[in-house]
Structure formats: structure tokens, C-alpha cells
Amino acid sequence: MEIILQILIDGLVIGAFYSLVALGYTMVYGIIKLLNFAHGDLYMMGAFIGFTFLSIFTGDGGVNTGLLGVGIVFIGTMVIVGLIGMGVERIAYRPLLLAPRLSILITAIGVSLSLEYTSMIGWGASYKVYPIKLPNDGLQILGTQISFAQIGMILLSALLMLGLRLFIDKTIYGKAMRAIALDQSACSLMGVNVHKIIALTFFIGASLAAGAGIMSGVYYGTINFMMGFIIGLKAFTAAVLGGIGNITGAMLGGLVLGILEAFGTFYLGGSWKDVLAFGILILFLVFKPTGILGAKEMERM
């Protein structure tokens, strides 16, 4: 029982990271039916920008930042990467909204490579050790040691997801996003600034990915410029698993994938975790492409 609970907690932490990144995929797809395969690299950018600011604060000549300082770095990094996401939308995707889907896919791959190798040039190709470490102590629950780091990661991820859910449901901008997802042309005729809402969607998705990137760096302790590639694919898997275009589905899909991956790693070995994740993606694409919460759509030809 203790082992199962420990695996479950580990899976929830991993799944929380997947969920935050998957939200960006599903929000953008829900609005403009675009699969932004460069999204995982915004997660990586968040980890590196957070690393830079935390290194300045805690390195030689810096200050010993406390929880408030870490919070400021966290929010500031989310804003910066959100603006990068808006820039990507404006420069790379907006001119191609009416272009064939293949053109946008190729552009997304180009943006991904540009972000990766710009980061490699700026920060180097070697692994970086995050400048702050989380305490190892925690709580004993049902005979299982659960660290404060794990509790903090799960709670912070839940807070971000709850904030997004409230934003989508309660604010005028969230309602505009939902309206555009239903009928972009009608929204434009009604005076909604469609491009502004699309840019805001990219900002929010990129910000959440950046938050996950910082949390991952703090939790695992190391980062590198290729870290966004695999998690981008797994977050896409989570979005498909939950039902791409469905906000709640992305959250659920990430958590389910994280838990399945944690159990698969324990019982099959770490070398099988990627095989398991992408095997789940293939199964869902073949047998249930709408995902767990996705609805079937009828399209008139």
C-alpha cells in the first residue's frame, strides 16, 4: 500500500507538469485549430529564464532570496515567456492562419528548432544545475513519506489550473475565447477583436508552460536546452488523452498520463516510460481520437 501511494504521488507531480503544458496545446487548438508543436520549448524557455534570474539573486554578489523573491521570479518569468509566446503568434502564425495546415506545421517545427538552438547558444549545451534546492523533509501519510516539495508542486499546479478555469468561466476575455472557439467569424462580425483574444490565448498558454518549466527545474534540479522536446510530445499526448480542445480534459489527461507513466516506470523500468506514453497516444488516436472528455463533431462538407 505504501509503495502504491508513493508511486501515485510521484505520478501526480509528473502529471501536474504535463497538465500545465497540455493546457497551452488545448487552448490554442480550441481557438484556431492549430497544433503548436513549439509549445514544449516555451516550457524550456521558462526553465532557463527562471534559472538566470534565480542565479542572479542567489549567486556571487547576489542576494539570498526568500520565498517572496522566488515568487517574484516565478511570476516575472511567466510574464516574459508569455510575451515570447505572443511574439511567436504574431510573427510566425498569424500570417499563416489561412494557409494550408501543412505550412503551419512546418512553421511550428521551425519555431521549435529556433527556440531550442537560440537557448543552446545563449546558455550552452551542457546541463545546468538549478540554483535553489527544495527541502527533503516532509510528512508521513499512511506510512509513505511525502515531501514538502511534492506537496508544493501539486498545490501550485492546482492553483494555476483553478485560476485558469475561473478566468475562462468568469471573465469577459474567457467568454470571448469560448465564443471564438465556437464561431470565429460571428465573433468578428459582433466586434470582438479576434486577433487580440488569440494573442491572449498564446500568452496564457506560454505562461503556464513557463511556470511548469521553473517548477520542473526546481523539483528535478537540472535543466538542458532539449528538455522541451519530450515533454512537449507528452503534453500533446495528455491533451489528446483528455480530449484536445477541452480545458478540463487537458488537466485530466496530464494527471492520468503522469500516473500511468509512474506505475509503468516502477513495474517495467525507466526505459519503458516513453514507450508507454506514446503507445497510449497511438491507442487513443486509433480507437478514441476525441479523448476522454472530447465530444464528437459533425462537419458539413
Automatic annotation (TrEMBL):
Sorted alphabetically, which keywords does the UniProt record give? Answer: Amino-acid transport, Cell inner membrane, Cell membrane, Membrane, Transmembrane, Transmembrane helix, Transport
UniProt cross-references to PANTHER family, sorted A to Z: BRANCHED-CHAIN AMINO ACID TRANSPORT SYSTEM PERMEASE PROTEIN LIVH (PTHR11795), HIGH-AFFINITY BRANCHED-CHAIN AMINO ACID TRANSPORT SYSTEM PERMEASE PROTEIN LIVH (PTHR11795:SF371)
Sequence intervals crossing the membrane: 12-35, 42-59, 65-84, 104-126, 146-168, 197-219, 275-295
Q: Which InterPro entries match?
A: ABC_transp_permease, BCAA_transport_permease
Q: In which broad location class does this protein mainly occur, judging by the first location in its UniProt entry? A: membrane
Enumerate the GO terms in the molecular function aspect: L-isoleucine transmembrane transporter activity; L-leucine transmembrane transporter activity; L-phenylalanine transmembrane transporter activity; L-valine transmembrane transporter activity
Write out the annotated subcellular location: Cell membrane
Report the CDD domains cross-referenced here. Answer: TM_PBP1_LivH_like
User: Topology in the membrane?
Assistant: Multi-pass membrane protein
Q: What is this protein called?
A: Branched-chain amino acid ABC transporter permease
Q: Which domain of life is it from?
A: Bacteria
Species name: Cytobacillus dafuensis (Bacillus dafuensis)
Q: Which Pfam families match?
A: BPD_transp_2 (PF02653)
- GO biological process terms on file: D-alanine transmembrane transport; L-alanine transport; L-isoleucine import across plasma membrane
Q: Which family does it belong to?
A: Belongs to the binding-protein-dependent transport system permease family. LivHM subfamily.
Q: Name one GO cellular component term.
A: plasma membrane
